[in-house]
Amino acid sequence: MTTSTSTSTAGSGSGSRPAAAWEPDRLGDGYEQLTFDLGPDPDGEGDARAVLVRRTVREGEQVTGAVLYVHGFSDYFFQTDLADFFAERGLAFYALDLRKCGRARQPGQTAHYVSDLGLYDEELELALGALAADHPDTPVVVAAHSTGGLVTPLWLDRRRRGGRVGPVAGLVLNSPWFDLQGKPMMRGPGTWAVRGLSRVRPLRPLDLPESTVYGDSLHVSAKGEWDYDLDLKPLTGFPVTIGWLAAVRRGHARLHRGLDVGVPSLVLRSDKTHYSRTHSPASDRADTVLDVRQIARWSGCLGDRTSVVPIADARHDVFLSLSEPRRQAYRVLDAWLREHPDLL
């Protein structure tokens, strides 16, 4: 049995640095966190850091692989049911709160802001190093949601082109953000305007209408069943900044030219999108954030071993859906893992 360790040396490439000791995490017993100090923020907002969270290996659990989970925009890791699911199948679970996100954001920093999605490569590599220190020579499944589902394929494609694939052996994407939703003009003239303005006003928030529809469907304070920190994941989401959106659109363009993540991929999404300014029963049985047709269209850009499975009545985060679509999402994930025994 592989057991948890109290310290780790993170990093698997140039620029890596020793990690601090694991400490108790806000999730309580059975969870620990490790802070990566990343030095001065390239975008000029003080010092950057990222936080890796691990579910500790429990007595009697066998570890044959590991998972690295990456959250989306206006999000952080709190989905302990997902961690338990993987652990039950022999996969030690780790989740990374990226710089300026969730646990990693520091006072005075703009939530989730980066000028280039490639900046996340540093903490992603450090996280892989920490996993390797805890569980040497085990395969790693990268799992990611929404914006994390764009960040991680871009990172894996860069790793492959740089001659690295291992220890990553599989990719699971939960409603990945593969294109800009909304009217076609936003993907043409709107994007050109964003790119131009990002050079002079990168931190300017977009003037978008606030909505709590998705948050209301999830959080226990409204109509949902999930209890999480609204300071880290507000009901309305954080403001979308010009510079961040420009970075995302560059990421979209790179994806659309075609990637090769180098490993088998599973893409889970809802079977439908429902946009509304007010919450209704339909909001609980659809993706209220992204256009699922775009996910279906662009999933083929990941490489030549991609499975795409729509989950009927799923929410944007399929693993936070109502009970039946949630169970179906887990059934699909379980079947996919069993089809790839080298991941387990």
From TrEMBL:
Superkingdom of source: Bacteria
GO molecular function: hydrolase activity
Domain Serine aminopeptidase S33, chain residue ranges per copy: 63-272
Pfam family, one: Hydrolase_4
Transmembrane segments: none
Keywords on record: Hydrolase
Low complexity composition-biased segments: 1-11
Protein's name in the database: Alpha-beta hydrolase superfamily lysophospholipase
InterPro entries according to UniProt: AB_hydrolase_fold, Hydrolase_4
Organism: Nocardioides panaciterrulae
Region annotation (Disordered) ranges: 1-25
